[in-house]
Design a protein that fits this description.
binds nicotinamide-adenine-dinucleotide, 7-stranded mixed β-sheet, 448 residues, single chain, 11 strands, disordered N terminus, 37% helix, 4-stranded mixed β-sheet, alpha/beta
Length: 448
């Protein structure tokens, strides 16, 4: 029976999804601020020292059926997600610091917390990385693989994956590494065949992040991208992802300023309020900030941050309201702040008869505290997608756009940036794969 508030889309009940039994191995590329905050946080939660705040997979609920049914289980009880106790971490970095040392350097978590977790965190030592300074100008890596060409480096990452696979039951990879220079797709990215030739010939269009992604996808390992790098946003990777049932999603964790943008912009649009300008500036002093101080890495980030407003406002549909928006984004490296980023937005809006108004947002956030639960959720949901018959061969998991500044979509589709549409899509996807009724919020039947 179809319940109220849904569009009659009773979905094919699956009931066939493999349970999350055994260990989930998480391979993290880049054991910096975000990665160590995620890993330390998972361990703190496992030991009952803290709550997984900010994580939808751990704290979120999902309504099933009518509002009057009072049925809202935890998401992790509704879909078969890996249990945090079954998660095992490893990773790569261009520095030899173990996760404890790297977390201490990042200074996101306080010494008291880190001290309690030290024996565990010290056990996670990075594998040597695939790195080339051409792609991240501000870093000088020392713990780096050597190979005769990019193919050789990819094979070494594949060997790392295969070795780790022997110790766990399933594997997911997530890029928490630095932002690379801005790259656009070229011929080498158009097919798996062209890409593999490019690995042999050391094509300059293939960045280190793509060598990791290629290694993961060729081994059937799902891949998430926390940075705005081009990485899997090219036909070759989409092809590989589909072929090997290795789900991918968009890129660049949607944390501070863009998170707020994708809440506020839909609100203005919903009320048909115009916007003439949106100026966003940030100060931050962590290593990410240092990398983004390089104009070529900043360009990659800027492109990712700029996209959301255009898609949300649809100026071609609403020229009177949004056609002339002046949108400017600045990121300033300011060491005294460390990971405690501060973001300011000045938004010039206009209302009835064109009368102008302003809104100022000053977000004093903690970058990695916002990003860590997103990284965890992406890992757990990609592992779920890999086990869901309905999702595993689809390649791009658009329902995970909720977490990302640059959602990835099928060719020809515009990305959906509105946080609340993304949230609905995510939850309906979970209902769908579990064979539950979708919820459309129509609800006329309450008034029969
Ligand atoms: N913190 C946030 O809110 C947030 C939001 C969106 C995106 N991001 C992105 O997430 C990424 C990580 O952020 P962070 O604050 O942890 O940065 P970070 O500089 O602290 O960590 C990045 C780590 O990656 C390592 N690295 C760089 N290139 C590598 C390679 N080729 N192989 C292996 N390791 C490599 C670096 O040595 C460093 O330890 C950045 O790209 C950042 O732009 C962060």
């Amino acid at each position: 029976m179809l319940s109220e508030e849904q569009g009659g889309q009773k979905t094919a009940a699956t009931g066939t999804m493999a349970r999350a039994t055994g260990k989930l191995g998480v391979m993290v590329v880049g054991l910096g601020a975000v990665a160590t905050t995620m890993i330390a946080g998972v361990e703190a939660v496992r030991r009952g020292l803290a709550k997984p705040i900010g994580s939808l997979t751990q704290m979120g609920t999902i309504r099933l059926g009518k509002r009057t049914d009072n049925q809202s289980p935890l998401i992790k009880d509704f879909v078969p997600l890996a249990d945090l106790n079954d998660v095992v971490f490893t990773g790569w970095d261009i520095f030899e610091d173990n996760v404890y040392e790297s977390a201490a350097h990042a200074k996101v978590l306080d010494e008291k917390t880190l001290e309690k977790l030290k024996p565990y965190l010290e056990t996670i030592k990075p594998l040597s990385a695939v790195f080339d300074q051409y792609y991240v100008k501000r870093l000088h890596g020392t713990h780096v693989k050597k190979g005769k060409n990019k193919r050789d480096l990819a094979d070494q990452v594949i060997a790392d994956i295969q070795a780790f696979k022997k110790t766990v039951d399933r594997v997911v990879m997530i890029w928490c590494g630095s932002t690379e220079i801005f790259l656009e797709p070229t011929a080498v990215h158009q097919s798996v065949e062209a890409f593999e030739k490019g690995l042999e010939s050391n094509d300059i269009g293939i960045a280190p992040s793509q060598i990791y992604a290629y290694a993961a996808l060729s081994q059937g390992v799902p891949f998430a991208n926390g940075a705005p790098n081009l990485t899997v946003d090219v036909p070759a990777m989409i092809e590989l992802s589909k072929r090997n049932a290795a789900p991918i999603c968009g890129k660049d964790f949607k944390t501070g300023q863009t998170f707020m943008k994708t809440v506020l912009a839909p609100a203005f649009k919903a009320r048909m309020l115009g916007v003439s300008g949106w100026f966003s500036t940030n100060i931050l002093g962590n290593r990410d900030g240092e990398v983004l101080d390089d104009p070529e890495s900043f360009k990659t980030k800027e492109e990712s941050k700029l996209g959301s407003l255009d898609y949300i406002f649809q100026p071609e549909l609403y020229p009177d309201l949004y056609k002339d928006i002046y949108h400017k984004i600045r990121i300033n490296y300011y060491p005294p702040r460390g990971d405690d980023k501060e973001a300011w937005d000045n938004i010039d809006i206009f209302g009835w008869l064109g009368y102008p108004m302003q809104l100022k947002v000053n977000f004093l956030c903690r970058d990695s505290i916002l990003a860590a639960p997103i990284a965890l959720d992406l890992v757990l949901f990609l592992d779920l997608a890999k086990r869901a018959p309905e999702l595993r061969y689809r390649g791009i998991q658009e329902w995970l756009s909720f977490y990302l500044k640059s959602p990835q979509t099928a060719a020809g589709l515009y990305p959906e940036h509105d946080l609340f549409i993304q949230s609905m899509k995510l939850k309906n996807t979970l209902r769908h794969i579990m064979g539950a009724d979708l919820i459309t919020h129509l609800g006329l039947e309450y008034y029969d």
